[in-house]
Amino acid sequence: MSEETKPFEPTIIGFTCNWCSYRAADMAGTARMKYAPNVRLIRLMCSGRLDPTFVFKAFANGADAVLVSGCHPGDCHYINQNYKMLRRFHLMKRVLAQMGIEPERIKLLWASAAEGAIFADEVNKFVEQVRALGPLNWNKGNGVALETPVHEEVPA
Fold this sequence. Notes:
CATH architecture: 3-Layer(aba) Sandwich
Oligomer: single chain
Number of helices: 4
Helix content: 25-40%
CATH class: Alpha Beta
Mean pLDDT: 89
CATH topology: Rossmann fold
Strand content: 5-15%
Distance between the termini: 48 Å
Largest sheet: 4 strands, parallel
Strand order of the largest sheet: 2-1-3-4
Low-confidence stretches: none
Number of strands: 4
Structural class: alpha/beta
């Protein structure tokens, strides 16, 4: 197949909470629930620990969308950190819109460790939503192209 006849398969970076949503993803996998392989999961200790720059770097380095998943509000192992993520999520959506990226390209999902089926279902819905949006083409007017990849600077 040529490049033009292949259907668009989005690349989605998923940031998941270690205590709930990562375990929900693990449960979905061990229970052999089918969900799209387009999501590359990165485990965090808590969704509240996600620095927004990681989300922006994911987009800058080629992700078509970002999924952020954590414990249900009120069930966070770190007291109220998922509320912190909720506030950051709304801020990130506004910043993405200002950058020319559709706010629908980022999703926040609450999933407990026992909700593997819900996690799989929501991932599948999100992948379909991103497929409908199409690829994030920085050079076609819906964003500003970066000349070089963004690299993390580690202080000495």
